[in-house]
Amino acid sequence: MAYVAVKGGERAIDAAHAWLAEARRGDATLPELSLEQIEQQLGLAVDRVMAEGACYDRGLAALAVKQARGDLIEAAFLLRAYRTTLPRFGASLPMDTGAMRLRRRISATYKDLPGGQVLGPTFDYTHRLLDFALAAGGTPPPAPQATPDGEATPRVTGILAQEGLMAPEAPSETEPPDLTREPLSFPAERPLRLQALARGDEGFLLAMGYSTQRGYGNAHPFVGEIRMGEVAVEIAPPELGFPIEIGEITVTECQMVNQFAGSKTEPPQFTRGYGLVFGHGERKAMAMSLVDRALRARELGEEVDAPAQSEEFVLYHCDNVEATGFVEHLKLPHYVDFQSELEKVREMRATVFREAAE
Amino acid sequence: MTIETGYNFGYLDENTKRMIRRALLKAVAIPGHQVPFGSREMPLPYGWGTGGIQVTASVIGPQDRLKVIDQGADDTTNAVSIRRFFAKVAGVATTERTSGATIIQTRHRIPEVKLREGQILVYQVPMPEPLFRLEPRVSETRRMHALADYGLMHVRLYEDIARHGHIAISYNYPVMVGGRYLMSPSPIPAFDNPKMHRMPALQLFGAGREKRIYAVPPYTSVQSLDFEDHPFQPIRANAACALCGARDSYLDEVVTDDKGGRMFVCSDTDYCNTRQAAREAAE
């Protein structure tokens, strides 16, 4: 092994990482968290890390949450850095979320609809009172069960489309771009935008979506439907020539219905904002669908003047792994640049004082 | 240090390296032009040298000897971290000697010692676009580069002179490469800019987060923007290094107490150490 330069910095880094490991474990007299516990009991954290880490693997996401001490952006980064080393075997066929095995399905546009509304495991309508009984621990009583009636649950936007009220999405056979292999380029078409949003930061999308509701971008949204549950993933290997199911994943889908006044070529109708997120990520799916609709302003001939409507602004800034890296790099040494700023400011001050004295 | 198994030599898989090498070849063929590339997530954060690391990983071979500096020094924490990364995933020899290195990855400095043919200087670049403070839209800056429409930058420099009497840029000072492309030299102090001009070594620039690569081939003209009546002026502290006495090197200012005490030392640690050793040997 060749000579490797060793300096004080190296020892400091080793010591810091040892301290980190100790702090991560916390009080060693308390039982250690298992990955299964994180996966089961911090499930929404695991889901968020899978979504923003762009890798569907609950076990690895739980490990990332544990390793990151609960810092979910750090966890998403760990998962991304792992994901990028994985080989790709192929692409899946488009998922049929209409055939989803539903755990939750609500529509804000219809009181009732085929297949009914299913609240599912939701925080909605809970009173946000700290539950001290939960602090004491214990197993909750079993939730009531019902048998599904087997009725089909078509997507709400499909119901609107039957009447011609929902702008159709033109099917395309072109190969979708791959954000993880090719750098972003603009104008970005919708498949690329949706890819970026699907792994974008929940907080960023929440704020951007919120801004469209407050007048920055002209949004008139209705939740056509939110559904969450399990969907089959299929691939069609070329050597087989027919699709095979390779498993199922949990996703949350939101279809936001927006009014569209029409244009020279299009009659007035509704348009769609779309959100799809790994796991149970309802806030993100909703925010994503608002931002997706805002980003369609250009193609729909609407005015583009709000931040949420700017492709470059949204797509370049929604990725929290990129954002956290660049914001946090400011803590790296910058003393060379700062020194030249010091000299420059001193020089400029000297000029100002000299001129004032004259 | 043990070599990490389970990863390819240099961490990146060979297909990724090939993609990056293609971008590098294109960049060398069009000096100063930013080439988009499919930057990968690295196990180090974006903004911490992932572009430079990907470039180094794509050009490094088992026979190479790598030097990594940050702020001119080999022992700054991020330089240590990146050097360890390559020792771990490539098992290559590392060195602190500028003259002994075949590849030098740097953040914010160009070594004081003149580089020679055959060496490669890899810069870590945070913002590859020299115009981003004047025009944040990448679609627009691409058009400006295509048309060599750099009036905006000249106006900015002119306004500095009109307002302050000086050009107020002290680092990341924009340069024209080969008389064609406006380029960010990365946040090196303006003091280092003249070293880029007709440098015998190959200069490669990697911006991981922004997914851009660019290059300055050996012996290419690199001119800092200026005006005939306001020529470019590199800046350094007007002092000598407290350790080696150098008056020609770029200096860091070290605050020694809270009563205004200061000392200046070379930012390039290898340059300073070599000079001190030579002086001791002479005594």
From TrEMBL, chain A:
<dbReference type="GO" id="GO:0016829">
    <property type="term" value="F:lyase activity"/>
</dbReference>
<dbReference type="Pfam" id="PF05861">
    <property type="entry name" value="PhnI"/>
</dbReference>
<keyword id="KW-0456">Lyase</keyword>
<protein>
    <submittedName>
        <fullName>Carbon-phosphorus lyase complex subunit PhnI</fullName>
    </submittedName>
</protein>
<dbReference type="InterPro" id="IPR008773">
    <property type="entry name" value="PhnI"/>
</dbReference>
From TrEMBL, chain B:
<dbReference type="Pfam" id="PF06007">
    <property type="entry name" value="PhnJ"/>
</dbReference>
<keyword id="KW-0004">4Fe-4S</keyword>
<protein>
    <recommendedName>
        <fullName>Alpha-D-ribose 1-methylphosphonate 5-phosphate C-P lyase</fullName>
        <ecNumber>4.7.1.1</ecNumber>
    </recommendedName>
</protein>
<comment type="function">
    <text>Catalyzes the breakage of the C-P bond in alpha-D-ribose 1-methylphosphonate 5-phosphate (PRPn) forming alpha-D-ribose.</text>
</comment>
<keyword id="KW-0949">S-adenosyl-L-methionine</keyword>
<dbReference type="InterPro" id="IPR010306">
    <property type="entry name" value="PhnJ"/>
</dbReference>
<keyword id="KW-0411">Iron-sulfur</keyword>
<keyword id="KW-0456">Lyase</keyword>
<comment type="similarity">
    <text>Belongs to the PhnJ family.</text>
</comment>
<keyword id="KW-0408">Iron</keyword>
<keyword id="KW-0479">Metal-binding</keyword>
